[in-house]
Write the structure tokens for this entry.
Amino acid sequence: MHLSSPAKKLIGILVLFIAALFISLPTPLNLDLKLGLDLAGGSHLVFEADTSKISPEKVKDAVVSLKEVVERRVNLFGISEPVVQTSSFGEKERIIVELPGIQNTQEAAELIGRTAQLVFAEVSEATSSGELKLTDLSGADLERAAVDFDQTTGKPVVALQFTKEGGGKFEKITEKNIGKAVAILLDTEIISAPIVQEKISGGNAIISGDFTIEEVKKLVIQLNAGALPLPIALVEERVVQATLGAESVSQSVKAGLVGLAMVLTFMILSYGRLGVVSAVGLIVFGVLTLALYKLIPVVLTLPGIAGFLLSVGMAVDSNILIFERFKEEKGRRPVPDALEVSFGRAWDSIRDANIATLVTAFILANPFDWDFLHTSGPVRGFAITLALGIAISLFTGIVVSRNLLRVFIREKKT
Amino acid sequence: MNWMKYRLIYFLISAAVVGAGIFAYFKWGLSLGIDFKGGALIEYQVGKDFSTEEAIKKIENPSIEVYSIQKAGENTYLVRTNPLDPHYRENIGIVLGELTGEATELRFENVGPSIGPDLIKKTIYAIAIAASAILLWVTFQFKSFKFGVSAVFAMLHDSLVLLGSFALFGHFFGAEIDFLFVTAMLTILSFSVHDTIVVYDRIRETRKKVGGSMTEMANMAVSQTMVRSLNNSFTIIFMLVALILLGGTSIKWFAIALLVGTISGTYSSPFVAVPILVSWDVLQRKIKRS
């Protein structure tokens, strides 16, 4: 049996389709769609850094280390796949933190936003109230902090271990202050001021205050991650409960299916057999798109789903352009020729028009993170699904439909 | 069909629609969402319907100012307030819980006042970049500045229609201008020009093959692309209507904005962009002749 070239291509398309179907189906590969915060639930926090107290040329470095510290804190917080981004626009330096699954933003914001500058101070006895004299021992000299419990009272305490250098400093301070208090300050607030009994060497210390276990845990995270180089304040927060996200997903799926059914019916009613071909093309489009979402992977947001649905509406456009052209050309030449001519002629429009849409999608997606454009998740999600949709629709609209039609029409003739 | 004979009518229709929008804009303004002006938006699932006035009275205190409480769906309500201090967030839920038996927070958004101005600037940059890129692309592709400028005018027309309609929707139905609206606006820019390019492409093809005056070529191109243009819009409209009716509250206004833009974009290609192109061409010839 001799297979024509379009038929061979169709077999190729079929293989691709089956592979894509295999990837899209929930089993057996178990590839999950990545859902954004608005669908999976979680919180989105934006902090603004106070850069007024440092010189302008130091801002850039400070923001870089700010991001590192925030990242460390978020990672120590123990949630999967958090995102920490910086955004610099005009005079404003911002840190964007996305925490999937976290609904209690107040707690998260406290953990991330506290400067956590730890300093040790000597208490001079000259005045009755006790004047503080800051030492050079600070949070920067810590090797690590850990949660511990006071052996007599059972209360949670923070166990500190200094670096070698820090241990040396601590030894000197304790030696100098036997019988006196040494104050431990966190963000200029005294959290503990124990009386030194003896010189402490070995670089270990304990902060015991009136802490709850949660406070100690938070403090340990902050101390281990290091102090923030710049104070930051929460300026924007968005929280979506997982239940609302799940509802959004089911609503969008329902809307998508109803819309798809209407589009398919419309195409078949308007174009008859040609419409059936475009319906097949659209189904291939849907499956390929879903497979790519999983493979890339695309983080799907609610506007992202809207972008996908919009691209379904636009995907049939190339078919409509070709079919309308075909209606015109059919009267002038034999059917197979008319088909080829329609594809050729319609291609110019399809290409030029879709490039314009891709340009806009590019600006919305802002793939290079240009600071003068939006870097927000939802809009980016929309633009990425729209752009992908257009790219795939060009493939299905041209390659898939064309070869289907070639085989379909040739066979009808013989 | 001699579409271009009725150019004046198309311009009048557009002027009326855009004019109504501008009127609405100056009369009522746009109601800006929290993304632009700052504030909190909380969506609650509650036990039963309640008197919003009573709720507002109970919630408000020197630190919480309630802008509005809106029913969003079955037993779901949207509460809008000034930017909230974290610990006031719970107060609102407690009040609603007392009023209705139970109140679960579904969504919480709190935006400080410093975000809005940047958002506006970034939006303006995005629109300016998109518009110039499209102007350049069309001018380059059709080798004529006239084509590019006419397409950009059609885009501008669609943006004004969208803005105007949201001034109306904002006043009568509480629609707000938010981040998603901006996204819809940019998408519509590209949709508008997408359609225009399809018509232009037919003009270009006719010019190569048959030639003729710009008016004749434009008439042919509009006739040849009319069915395609309508059919394509129908398929997009189907998807959007499904999304508006079934897609839930979070993206309802986003889908409506896209729908308005799609309809306007479909109209603006044959009835704004091409008539401007033809009028420009006719005018240019008249000036040359004299």
Remarks:
- DSSP finds ten helices and 13 strands in chain A.
- The first helix of chain A runs from residue 5 to 24.
- The first strand of chain A starts at residue 34 and ends at 35.
